[in-house]
């Protein structure tokens, strides 16, 4: 039995070796995607283009505005003189944020009263808007606090009271610099492998069916299971190679740390590949032409990609969709990958996800093999 | 250019599309599926983030602070621990994404030195959520801090009444609820258009080569331009149909505000379709093996569209080198236009820059595509 | 117009190289109006390549050709307006019906709308597909498909037809029907160039061009070819153990050439009478039991084989 599988493996690799195009397709897209995701995919917010309008022209107003100017989260692109200019800037997307200090600002502050600050934010990109507002509030809060302490220290409005404040010390775990790349790049490993393995597996078998060589092979003493194993083994190896390639690239080029146990990653990868192969196989039993296989792959891969938590958190999805994600092997694999790269946790934390992939893999493979057998009769 | 030949090609293409259920499914089902998936699945809003607490002081003060966390709609306290190890494990396992730790001498320090710190351990694997969570947590603590300050000052006889001297009054334009969906869904329409176009047209030429019908077709007087236009016209119609569908779905199902005009939408969508279809066609003529063509088609359109078009990841936050690359991503212009038309109500005059870019793009692609097709076997 | 050109197809020293391999090597011929010319030769001889060059689908590496008076390399589009083409692989649209295919090609060739229905009717009748116009082409059997493809090629009444192995894989009955159609067309003045690897179809042509390994070996009418003296008499031998028989015959006296032809062996002998007398015993002596041995008239195939053999011998030993 192993002899036959080995023969198939050799045949597949020979075909692959001759197909230069296939080699290109296996190496180039992963690397390109890595680079692009690594550099393009970011939700960080820096240098938010801001327009300011100071109608107060006091020490306080200038002090406040300078805090924004010195923060690298904001970039003052224009100092406006009229309200119309401010609105224009936002409308034309020259600025995403507008800060307007009205006349009388400092006066209110000196009297110990609340002074309003007008802020306009372009909500077209709500994510950046939210984050930008957060930073803005930080700057404002800091200035407020400093000002209040100053007041109290100088004993204004009563006997010199004590400054009291509660602060928050954020301690980011696993990703101390909140580096976006550390989040995405490990994820790229998984999503790429999913796409490659599923589409390769699906089209490979279908192509043989289309050309007719499938019939030829079935006439030989080979058994369906052996055929499937032999056919999918190369893709399994290719999948492993891709994961290794991308993981290596990620650690070397983007300097993403790897603090976990590589063996766990290996185990997770094998289980993941099992389920992706199962998926590809299932598609191959459903499609009659290569074109259909490709379309079907796409139908399956796109939702798998989106529902996996790759870039959009699963927790933010509606409940029904969250349940759907349990059917997605990539979802589990992303947890495993991110955990082994950044968290360094062990089996005790990851076993549910590993189990999930194992179950999915077994079920998918079982269904595919059964269908495959039936299709031959 | 003979209309008769063009017509013959177009009629044939329509018949073939009609008889190919897969193509039909792609054309009709995919937009629907995409809209649902992306519309619901794509959300960057952070709500009910699981939080666990480790209150080492357990005083009235600390309880008051933690109550504020509970009260916030952004957080949801799921567990309380009494030791660091359990907290660590909870974070490791993903049971909670944020852990608030109140030190043992919280109140003491406050009365002594006037400053006390509360720790927030954040799972920063997902840096975006972490950022947002920290921002919210900061707000909660700041609010608490102000109250404490006011109370203490009042006790000392101070009349500093302002809770916070500076009250930032923020108004959000265009997307008042800051619903991420509102800004993502217009981009979804772009994504859908790009995918459908790429899928269908990138196969059309290579399919004929593989089946052998192209050899016969090439021996006839049909010109490359007639062939291209005849083949693409049906897909253009399908694309417009899909656009109408997506628009309706976005507005009536997802309640995304639409403040622009239909004329602007129609014009810009047509332009975009020309580009997408042209590119798919180019790919199809360049690569004769079908699967290779389709995969390349997908690579060329899907990847740039999702990543570099500004659909989800803001372009102005990318490194300058990558920003430069996005100028080549045709989807980028369409996404900008769509968002502006939907949320800002921009008209054609407001959008001259991206529209011009798309016109140039469409022209170049059309020119290349017509020339790329060679009526020869070698 | 173009229909009045006396030699609508002219090839002058055509060469086509793919890399260093010459698929067509210095081929020249002229075809007269209304002629049916058959290109005969084994698979890979270069027949399709020649036809594709004449259609403008491949550019000649060397040499020139003029079809309907237009140079195939310089004005391929004018050429295409005046030809009908059937490619080797069946290339109609299998997901379209008979009628839809015909209408499509009618549109492509811009057959005037007033005339198109009649032309389509003619094509349908010619193919024998009346009452089946709305069937999907994928459901048709081989012979029907071939005739339909021919119908699509003649909708616009082209003066010249290039048919590349139109009868491949088609049953003999359908093949005969097909050739009847070609004859009808030729009678109407259409010039037809047909390639085939069925040697017996040579009889149907006005002239036959023998192609082997890119070279035009001989071009003549079937009759002239058959009158070509083989330089001896031809005998057919049938027996058990053909291998042993052939070995024995090679050494037999008076035998000039031995070739296997299906179940029998054709041998070229100096004198039929002498051979018929001597060979049976000679073979029996070698342990070969002869079931049949008689003189036969040479067919085109015999002549072809001998010509190819002669060409090969003239070239000398191959590397």
Would you mind describing this structure in some detail?
- The complex is a heterotrimer of chains A (377), B (378) and C (319).
- Chain A contains 14 helices and 5 strands.
- Chain A has helices at residues 2-18, 20-40, 59-70, 83-91, 105-110, 126-153, 180-211, 213-219, 224-253, 262-286, 290-306, 319-324, 329-343, 347-376, and strands at residues 48-54, 74-79, 97-101, 115-122, 165-173.
- In chain A, helix 3 (59-70) links the parallel strand 1 and strand 2.
- Chain A is elongated, with a radius of gyration of 29 Å.
- The mean pLDDT of chain A is 81.
- By secondary structure, chain B is of the alpha/beta class.
- Chain B has 2 domains: 3-43 and 179-372, no CATH class; 49-155, abc type-2 transporter like fold (3-Layer(aba) Sandwich), CATH 3.40.1710.
- In chain B, helix 3 links the parallel strand 1 (49-55) and strand 2.
- In chain B, helix 3 crosses helix 6, helix 7 (180-211) packs antiparallel against helix 9 (224-253) and helix 10 runs parallel beside helix 14.
- Chain C has 10 helices and 14 strands.
- Chain C has 2 domains: 2-221, Rossmann fold, CATH 3.40.50; 231-297, Alpha-Beta Plaits, CATH 3.30.70.
- Chain C has a 6-stranded mixed beta sheet, sandwiched between helices. Chain C has a 4-stranded antiparallel beta sheet with strand order 2-1-4-5.
- The radius of gyration of chain C is 23 Å and the shape is elongated.
- With 319 residues, chain C is an alpha/beta fold.
- Chain C is 35% helix and 28% strand.
- The chains are: A alpha/beta (377), B alpha/beta (378), C alpha/beta (319).
- Strand 4 of chain A pairs parallel with strand 5 (166-173) of chain B, so a sheet runs across the interface.
């Amino acid at each position: 039995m192993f002899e036959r599988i080995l023969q198939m493996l050799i045949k597949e690799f020979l075909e692959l070796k001759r197909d230069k195009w296939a080699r290109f397709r296996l190496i180039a897209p992963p690397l390109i995607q890595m680079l692009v995701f690594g550099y393009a995919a970011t939700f960080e917010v820096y240098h938010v283009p801001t327009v300011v309008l100071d109608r107060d022209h006091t020490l306080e107003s200038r002090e406040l505005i300078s805090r924004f100017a010195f923060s690298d989260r904001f970039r003052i692109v224009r100092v406006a003189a009229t309200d119309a200019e401010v609105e224009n800037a936002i409308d034309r997307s020259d600025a995403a944020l507008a800060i307007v200090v009205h006349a009388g600002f400092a006066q209110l502050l000196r009297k110990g009263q609340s002074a309003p600050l007008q802020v306009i934010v372009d909500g077209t990109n709500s994510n950046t808007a939210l984050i930008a507002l957060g930073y803005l509030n930080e700057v404002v809060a800091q200035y407020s606090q400093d000002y209040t302490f100053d007041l109290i220290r100088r004993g204004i409005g009563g006997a010199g009271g004590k400054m009291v404040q509660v602060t928050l010390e954020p301690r980011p775990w696993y990703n101390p610099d909140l580096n976006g790349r550390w989040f995405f790049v490990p994820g790229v490993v998984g999503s790429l492998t999913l796409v490659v393995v599923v589409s390769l597996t699906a089209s490979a078998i279908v192509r043989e069916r289309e050309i007719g060589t499938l019939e030829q092979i079935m006439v030989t003493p080979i058994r369906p299971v052996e055929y499937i194993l032999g056919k999918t083994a190369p893709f399994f190896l290719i999948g492993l190679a891709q994961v290794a390639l991308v993981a290596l690239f990620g650690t070397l080029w983007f300097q993403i740390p790897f603090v976990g146990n590589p063996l766990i990653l290996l185990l997770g990868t094998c289980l993941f590949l099992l389920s992706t192969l199962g998926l590809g196989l299932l598609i191959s039993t459903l499609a009659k032409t290569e074109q259909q296989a490709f379309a079907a792959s796409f139908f399956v891969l796109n939702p798998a990609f989106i529902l996996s938590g790759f870039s959009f958190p699963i927790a933010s999805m509606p409940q029904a969709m969250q349940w759907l994600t349990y059917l997605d092997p990539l979802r589990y694999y992303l947890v495993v990958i991110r955990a082994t790269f950044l968290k360094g946790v062990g089996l005790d934390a990851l076993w549910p996800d590993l189990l999930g992939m194992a179950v999915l893999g077994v079920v998918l493979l079982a269904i595919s093999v059964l269908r495959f057998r039936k299709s031959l009769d | 250019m003979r209309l008769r030949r063009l017509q013959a090609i177009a009629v044939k293409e329509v018949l073939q599309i009609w008889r190919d259920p897969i193509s039909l499914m792609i054309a009709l089902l995919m937009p629907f599926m995409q809209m649902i998936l992306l519309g619901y699945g794509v959300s960057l809003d952070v709500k009910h983030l699981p939080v666990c607490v480790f209150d080492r002081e357990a005083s009235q003060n600390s309880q008051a602070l933690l109550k504020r966390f509970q009260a916030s709609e952004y957080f949801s306290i799921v567990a309380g621990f009494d030791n660091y190890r359990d907290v660590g494990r909870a974070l490791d396992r993903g049971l909670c994404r944020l852990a608030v730790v109140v030190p043992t001498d919280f109140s003491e320090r406050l009365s002594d030195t006037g400053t006390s710190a509360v720790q927030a351990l954040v799972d920063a694997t997902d840096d975006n959520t972490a950022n947002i969570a920290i921002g919210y947590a900061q707000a909660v603590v700041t609010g608490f801090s102000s109250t404490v300050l006011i109370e203490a000052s009042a006790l000392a006889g101070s009349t500093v009444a302002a809770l916070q001297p500076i009250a930032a009054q923020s108004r959000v334009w265009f997307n008042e609820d800051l619903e991420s969906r509102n800004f993502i869904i217009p981009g979804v329409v772009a994504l859908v258009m790009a995918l459908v176009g790429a899928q269908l047209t990138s196969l059309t030429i290579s399919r004929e080569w593989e089946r052998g019908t192209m050899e016969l077709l090439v021996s006839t007087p049909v010109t490359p331009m007639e062939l291209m236009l005849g083949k693409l016209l049906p897909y253009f119609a399908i694309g417009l149909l899909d656009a109408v569908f997506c628009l309706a779905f976005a507005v009536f199902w997802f309640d995304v505000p639409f403040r622009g005009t239909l004329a602007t939408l129609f014009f810009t969508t047509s332009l975009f379709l020309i580009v997408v279809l042209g590119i798919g066609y180019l790919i199809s003529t360049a690569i004769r093996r079908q699967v290779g063509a389709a995969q390349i088609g997908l690579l060329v359109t899907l990847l740039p569209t999702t990543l570099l078009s500004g659909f989800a990841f803001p372009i102005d936050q990318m490194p300058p080198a990558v920003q430069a690359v996005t100028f080549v991503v045709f989807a980028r212009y369409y996404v900008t236009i769509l968002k502006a038309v939907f949320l800002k109500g921009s008209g054609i005059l407001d959008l001259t820059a991206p529209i011009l870019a798309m016109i140039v793009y469409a022209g170049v692609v059309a020119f290349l595509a017509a020339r790329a097709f060679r009526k020869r076997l070698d | 117009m173009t229909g009045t050109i006396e030699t609508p197809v002219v090839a002058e020293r055509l060469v086509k190289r793919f890399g260093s391999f010459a698929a067509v090597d210095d081929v020249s011929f002229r075809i007269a109006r209304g002629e049916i010319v058959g290109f005969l030769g084994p698979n890979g001889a270069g027949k399709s390549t020649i036809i594709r060059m004449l259609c403008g689908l491949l550019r000649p590496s060397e040499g020139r050709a003029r079809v309907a008076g237009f140079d195939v390399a310089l004005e391929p589009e004018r050429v295409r307006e005046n030809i009908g083409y059937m490619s080797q692989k069946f290339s109609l649209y299998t997901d379209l019906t008979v009628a839809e295919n015909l209408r499509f090609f009618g549109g492509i060739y811009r057959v005037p709308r007033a005339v198109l229905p009649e032309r389509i009717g003619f094509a349908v009748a010619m193919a024998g597909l009346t009452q089946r116009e709305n069937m999907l082409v994928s459901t048709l059997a081989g012979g029907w498909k071939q005739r339909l493809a021919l119908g699509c090629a003649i909708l616009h009444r082209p003066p010249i037809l290039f048919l590349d192995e139109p009868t491949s894989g088609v049953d003999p009955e359908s093949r005969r029907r097909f050739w009847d159609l070609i004859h009808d067309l030729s009678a109407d003045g259409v010039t037809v160039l047909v390639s085939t690897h069925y040697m017996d179809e040579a009889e149907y042509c006005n002239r036959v061009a023998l192609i082997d390994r890119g070279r035009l070996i001989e071009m003549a009418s079937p009759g002239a070819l058959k009158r070509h003296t083989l330089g001896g008499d031809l005998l057919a031998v049938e027996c058990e153990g053909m291998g042993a028989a052939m070995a024995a015959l090679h050494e037999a006296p008076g035998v000039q050439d031995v070739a296997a032809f299906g179940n029998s062996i054709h041998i070229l002998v100096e004198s039929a009478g002498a051979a018929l007398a001597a060979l049976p015993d000679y073979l029996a002596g070698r342990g070969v039991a002869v079931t049949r041995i008689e003189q036969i008239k040479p067919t085109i195939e015999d002549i072809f084989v001998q010509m190819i053999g002669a060409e090969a011998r003239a070239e000398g030993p191959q590397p």
